[in-house]
Amino acid sequence: MDYMALDFEKQGGLVPAIIQDAVTNKVLMLGYMNDESLKITRDRGLVTFWSRSRNTLWTKGETSGNYLEVREIIEDCDHDTLLIKAIPTGPVCHTGSDTCFSEENNPEEIPTSDFLFYLEQIIHDRRDFPQEGSYTNHLFSRGINKIAQKVGEEAVELIIESKDDNKDLFLGEAADLLYHFLVLLTQKDVRLGEVVEVLKGRHSR
């Protein structure tokens, strides 16, 4: 996207930047950017602000290690505000809170009914923004045949475990199968919601 249309002069050379979690959609914080900090943000892929109190550039996380990894930068309709979707690598607020608005942004707090869709987003993010050492990226690197084979292996392990009475082991295998199934869907560019729609269609009244 070309950000030449951004009106930095409207507010004295700065534009507000709303930071949103790219996966959970929680609003994390608000900061300000000038032309230089926006360029650094785009080039490095880490959210960088202009600190009004210190009158200097400031990459979020440069002290704490809790960076904001950029996924998307969106300009508003008036060309004077930015929405930046990012992945936080730790708590965002200087107080130690997940967000600067005292809201939790913890995957464990996501409702059970929504968690598979959250996990799907994480898997998509790993595919689009690979991370060294990631097991998910290791799966993607092996290609569709190996991923499909892995789903088959996990299904067999679940079947075997279902014949015993150890619920914890059965749950573990069921979780493994669901995770690898989501990886397979992502590799095929199919969304979980599409599968749900098929199931809904089979149960219409």
Question: Would you write up a description of this structure?
Answer:
The protein is of the alpha+beta class. The protein has helices at residues 35-44, 112-128, 135-162, 167-187, 192-202, and strands spanning 15-21, 27-33, 48-51, 56-59, 68-75, 82-88. Strands 2-1-6-5 form a four-stranded mixed sheet, with helices on one face. Helix 3 (135-162) crosses helix 4. The longest helix is centred in the last third of the chain and has 28 residues, at 135-162. The mean pLDDT is 94.
| Topology pattern, helix = H, strand = E | EEHEEEEHHHH
As a whole number of angstroms, the C-alpha radius of gyration is: 21 Å
Specify the structural class: alpha+beta
Globally, the shape reads elongated
Record field, number of beta strands? 6
The largest sheet has its strands arranged as 2-1-6-5
